[in-house]
Amino acid sequence: MSPDAGGARPPAVAGQFYRGDAADLASEIEGCFTSDRGPGELPARHRSPKRRIRAAVVPHAGYRYSGPIAARAFFEIAKERPPESVLVLGVDHYGRGAGTALSAREWRTPLGPARVDPELLRALDHPPIVVDERSHRDEHSIEVEIPFLQYVLPALSFVPLMVRFAPFEDLARVAEVVRSAVRGRDVLLLASTDFSHYLPATEARRRDARAISEIVARRARGLYDTVQRWDISMCGIAPTTVLLEALRDEPLTVRDLGWGHSGEAEPMAEVVGYDALVLESAEPLPPGRARPDPSVA
Description:
Elements: H1 22-34, E1 53-58, H2 63-77, E2 85-91, E3 100-102, E4 107-109, E5 112-116, H3 118-124, E6 130-131, H4 145-152, E7 157-163, H5 168-182, E8 187-192, E9 197-199, H6 201-216, H7 220-229, H8 237-246, E10 252-261, E11 271-281
Parallel strand pairs: 1-8, 2-7, 2-8, 3-6, 5-7
Antiparallel strand pairs: 1-11, 3-7, 4-5, 9-11, 10-11
Helix pairs in contact: 1-2, 5-8, 6-7, 7-8
């Protein structure tokens, strides 16, 4: 374990990507849900006792820009029985520490602490995955998902896993570890990614549609190759590839909740593209060992 591992991980981008005060942040999240770019309403107070969503792909920009798009996925997650744990696969924007890195520390946001699931952490802590806190210290791609998760999932238990871009074969080895770790576990997987960066909206939509079609088809190698071939600046290609490859044998279908871009929040000539997608099972997923949530209907 890294020597940086002592104590809880403080938020690195509170007050920048999202509001730094708890009440203001809760209000901001609710604004993402009620936005006409988002679901248009707050999550339901009562959940289904069943859970079908196994995984989701969500953006990670500032809430002003991508929050309503991300809220589309979290709105769907909030309808269902809470999972026992959440695995958040993030992007390595800075290249610090190990290339595929877990964090073992409790994470804090303005909404409070988020506990790392020790059992899932141990199941994932196998080469090429290691615990290295340096990789997570300043990175925002996982952090911005945590307040949304805290809002929709009571008593959040999660594991953060940073995945650096690498050859497909290396990512497939990471996916093997993830596949083994989540097999038989009541885990929701999230891949954190934005899509095209700094292109006119029409061109961003055209390029992103190619990548999104591969995600909908659940083709990990197809997504990886498409992003390379068409020069799609999808920052989270590595975590999304790992997610698709790890779940390749599970009987899931993908629902695209809708593409959007930063220019919808304020006028700009070049935009960043976002999408929210969920991977779900036709049959209810088996429950884990988590205590029943009192909001389950």
